[in-house]
Each structure stands twice: as structure tokens, then as C-alpha cells.
Amino acid sequence: MERPLRSELKRAFASVGPSPFVGGQRPKSQKKKDLGFARKPMVGWFDPMQLIITAIRALLSIIFGAYADKREIQGSLDRPDLHDYSTEKELWFDYVADIGDGWNSTYTIAKLLSKARLVFNHNGKQVETQRGRFLIMGGDEVYPTPGREAYSDRTVGPYQSALPWVIYEQAPHLYAIPGNHDWYDGLTSFTRLFCQKRWIGGWQTQQSRSYFAIKLPHNWWLWGVDTQLDAYIDKPQLNYFTDIAKKQMKRNDRIILCTAEPSWIYTVTKSPDAYHNIAYFERNVIRKHGGILSLNLTGDQHLYCRHQDESGTRQKIIAGGGGAFLHPPHRIPDALELDEGEFKVKYSRRAIFPSPATSRWLAFRNLLFSFKNWRLSRFLGCYYLLSAWIFQSSSNIYEVSLMQKLMQLTPRPGEIGEVIRTFYSVLIVSPLNMVLLLVLVFGMVAFCDAKRAFLKVSFGCLHGLTHVALNMGLIWLFAYLNLTIWQMTLGNPAHVLLFGAEMFVVGGLLGGFAMGIYLLVANLLLRFHSDTGFSSLSIADYKNFLRLHFNKKGDLTVYPIGVRKVCKKWRFVKEAEAGESWFEPVMDVQTHFIEDPVVIKKTAT
To answer: Residue 127: how many CB atoms within 10 A of its CB?
Structure first.
């Protein structure tokens, strides 16, 4: 393979931050100091520190979005370019979304996207797909929050490793639209990485804004729209697309619209108004100037799903399988009716991956919540232990301490009333314990994501009180076991250490189990916690991306490519040729077409 110019390589590797690789040199080892990045595991969404940090960043993103919108600042700069590929008679391009999570899942997809060709056996025939002339990243390019190091470890590192570089003239281009996780720092890191024509391995970014328009062959267009946390489409962006529609788009030109969220799905699962932004954009920018919206592409839901209208000419595809944890397909509606301006359009679900039945079985992994989310289980164990300590300390104002009272009550249902009265007598004279109890209950109310206030409060309180009851029950059980059955002396070092270990270990395990049961029931039966009920599982498998092809007639074919099992063991290839991937899978990654390739005819109306 011919080497690029040395200056191009310097520019390529310099663009991703501090890197030891100049002139195509490969890393000497897979250590972080040689790679220039760390291979990260899946994000632990139930890690207490991670929850706090993400909540703070989400709050700050709202402030940034309201008072320091990067799109408004960009609007004062030079007008963004129009990216033109319309002279090509045939064209391939790729689409991926929701990347930048764990190394195994993100690199598996990046490795497949880097291949010049992928061949599939489909319906008894061999179908060959080609690497795209450009790659669209459809939102949420990093998890959990953006930043130079996060992008380097979770996005740039995997993609650079998969395709370190190619011949400059053959380098595929890269475009990206920001999702809500990219917006958590007000779009600062996203703008630096994707809007300054930098290199990410062998892909070169092209855009200068967080939105872009691409002119495609045969009177097709691809527009990437930034809806900024689904709030609104800013005026400079509207002016940009309106100007293109007025001056360069012809009547009946076909539009592929890329957004960061499947707002058509969220009309059912979140709010009836969720689609208004896109409906307004289609009505006042696309349709008003003679264009036809034929295909919507999005991510945010980490799965594959395609809805089609009754005429078969309008497709809405979710392809959010670029690396992040799996979302539950069984929560995706079968049918939709969307208000698209002058008329309402009915859509039906035509394909989904993985299947809803598989999704429901996967939900039962929440029974292992304590082990999959051990940091939160550890936190619950600490909470139970602290609460027991304060209960016992507060009870010392009585002649008989809490432990001495509980040790006399045999753990059986008939004694529950007396146990409750014993705890209540201590609770009313212990403000600190009351505060801890209320924080736990109200915290679970806030955690419950039911849309109706009554359901949110009732099920949140029920969940919180379950943990309170579990905590008190464990104090009662261990007081009876340690002091009555095993006849230990209250307060001696052996008893203190044993009781502390019991509350921390057993309390943590059972507290985590209670959380897992709640998420399982809420997700399968109550239709709550669509996101959190599966983010707790951090499922790296069931990934997907799209390869799209315009033929010489102008018809568009969408190839939905699925991966049931991502690779979890990689071999570092130190002696490979320059430009080849730095890591190879120990076992072949099996790919397949999720459904028959979707053909959208140019002549359809």
C-alpha cells in the first residue's frame, strides 16, 4: 500500500491529541502510553459517582443550551460549506450512531466499517457491500459525558485503531451530528473534534458546524440537523437549510434527514409533541420548496428498527447500534400515526433487531443486578450499615437498646407489628435517621420515570419503602442471630465487626436484588424505565450499522447490517503492514443482514 505524504500523516495524528505516531509508525505495544488512549469497559450507569457526574453535566448542558448555544455562535462565522458528491454516478456511504461506549462493542463496529468490502450470503446469493465514500455518525459520539480524554479513549482511539490511515486520495470523509451526550459540555469538545477538518484515523472530518448538507447523486440530498437536546432548531440553521432549498434544490429532489433522536417513536413513549420539530422542518423547509422527505435516519435508541408508511415510499430507520448498551426492542411501538402538517401518515413497524422476545428474556438479567452493578450494591450496603449504626446510637436514650429489644423478638410474621413499633419509637427521636429515610424514599420517587405524577409518586414510594423495610428487617434478623442464637456480647469488637460485615455484604446483595426486581417489573409490566431497565445490564451485543448505495439509476438501497455477538478478545498486531488495523479479533465476528435490503426508488412519489 502506498504511503500518504508525511505532512498529511503528521496532520492526521496531531489532530487526535498527543500521539507518538508520526509517519505511519505503529504502536510498540497495547499499553496506554504507546497506544495514546485507554481501552475502556462499558460505562457503569449505576455507579453512584457516575450518576452524580452525569446529572451535573446534564444540568450544565441545559444552562449552556439556554445561555451559550454554540450554534448561535457558529452562526456569526462564515457560512458553512455545501458538500457535493453529486457528480458520482454510483455512491456508497455508511451510517452509524451511538458509539463511544465500551471498547469491545465500539471497536467491533469500527473494525467492520473500516473494511473496504463486506460480503454476505443472503437468500442463496453473495451480496458485496463497499466502504462508504463518507461515514455519517448520527449522534452520541461519546459516553457518558464529552471531553478531550473521553473522546480520545472511547471514540478516536477505537476508530484510529481500526483504520489508522489510507492513501490520502482514497480517504473516506466523516460527518457527525451531536446527540444529547455530546451537548453535555455545550458542544465545546464536539466542535473541536468534528468541525475543524481533523483526522480520526483514516477518516477526515469535513463540516464546520454541528449541522451540514450533502448533495448526493441523482437529485438526492442528505441533511444532518442539530436539534440541541430536542429543544428547537436555531434560526441560523433554519436559514442555512432554507437557503439551500431555495437556491439549489430542484422540485421533487429526495431528502435523507438525519437527526439525533427518533422523535416519531417518542410521540408514543415520551410526549405527543415530540415530532413537532421535524414536522415543522419538513413542512416549512423541505416540502415548501418542492422537496420530498423519503428517509429519516437516527439513533438514540440503541437498536435497529424500521417503520414504513402505507405507500411504502417513506422510511424511518433507527440504527443506534454503534457501541452503546442495548435498549429494549419490546418497548418500540408496532404502529404510529404522525401529524405531518397537512395530513396524518400511518406507519407500521417492518423490522426490529433484536426481536422483542429476545429483549424480554434479556430483561431478566436484572435478577443479577447486585453483581452487574456492584458499585451501587456496595453503596446500598453502606447505607444500610450507616442507618443501623444511627438507629442503635439513637436508641441508647432508652434503658434497653434497639439491639437488646430486637434480640428478644423471634423473626416470624407474628412479631412484625412489635418490630415496627420498636423502630418507630427510635425513629421519632432520631432526626438524622428520619432524614436518611426521607432521602431514600424521595430519591426513589425522583428515580421513577413514570410519566403520570400519581404513578411516579406511588411506585417511587413503594420502591423506597421496600429498601427501608429490607434495612430494618436485616437489623432485626442479625440482632436475633448474633445476640440470641450465637450468644455474642453486644458491643464487643467481634460483634461489631460481624454485624458491620453482615449489613454491608448481605444488605448490599439484597438491596441490589431489590433494585433489579423493581427494574424488571417496571420494564416488563409497568412500561417504566425503558432506558434504565437496560442500561443496568450494559449489554454489549446486538449491534448494527447501515451501508447505503446509490445505483446508476438513482435508486437507494439500504443494507442493515447486524452483529449478534461482539468480539471480546483481541489480538494486538504489532508487525502488520502500515495502515492495517492495530487489533484483530481472536474469533471471526459474524455479521448478517437484519432484513432484506431496503430499496427506495428514485421515481417513487
So the answer is: 14
pLDDT at 3 over 50: no
Q: What is the pLDDT, as a whole number, of residue 344? A: 87
Query: Nearest to residue 158, comparing CAs of 107, 200, 120, 122?
Result: 107
Contact 372, 365 (CB under 8 A): yes
Residue 186 backbone class (left: φ over 0; alpha: ψ -120 to 50; beta: rest): left
Q: Taking Cα atoms as reference points, which of 313, 463, 472, 486 lies closest to residue 390?
A: 472
Which residues, in sequence order, are bridge partners of residue 255? 221, 293
**Residue 415 DSSP one-character state:** G
Helix axes 48-67, 374-394, angle to 10 degrees: 100
Domain segments of the chain as ranges: 6-363+541-600, 374-535
Q: DSSP characters for 461-475?
A: HHHHHHHHHHHHHHH
Cα distance between residue 141 and residue 286, in whole Å: 27
Identify the residue whose cell numbers are 444488605.
Answer: 507
Cβ-contact 320, 298 below 8 angstroms = yes
* Sole residue written with cell 430542484: 250
- Compute the distance between CA of residue 128 and CA of residue 585 in angstroms, rounded to an integer: 21
- H-only helix segments in 261-319: 263-269, 276-281
Q: Among 129, 209, 192, 184, which Cα is nearest to 156's?
A: 192
CA 29 to chain CA centroid, Å, is: 30
DSSP codes, 501-568: HHHHHHHHHHHHHHHHHHHHHIIIII---TTHHHHTTT---SEEEEEEEE-TT--EEEEEEEESS---
Output the nine-digit C-alpha cell for 54: 452525569
Give the closest residue to 509 by CA, choosing from 385, 409, 371, 415: 371
d(CA 72, CA 65): 10
Task: Give the span between the Cα atoms of 523 and 97, in whole angstroms.
Answer: 24
Backbone φ and ψ for 213, nearest 5 degrees, come out as -130, 135
Per CATH, which fold does 6-363+541-600 belong to? Purple Acid Phosphatase; chain A, domain 2 (3.60.21)
Return the amino acid letter for 192.
R
Give the 3-state secondary structure of residue 103: helix
Give the tens place of pLDDT for each residue, 508-562.
Answer: 999 999 999 999 999 999 888 988 999 999 999 999 999 999 999 999 999 999 9
- Which three three-digit cell numbers place residue 553? 439509476
What 3-state DSSP class applies to 593?
Answer: strand
Does the reported pTM lie above 0.70? yes
Contact predicate 524/364, CB 8 Å: no
User: Among positive and negative, which fits the CA dihedral 65, 70, 76, 78?
Assistant: negative
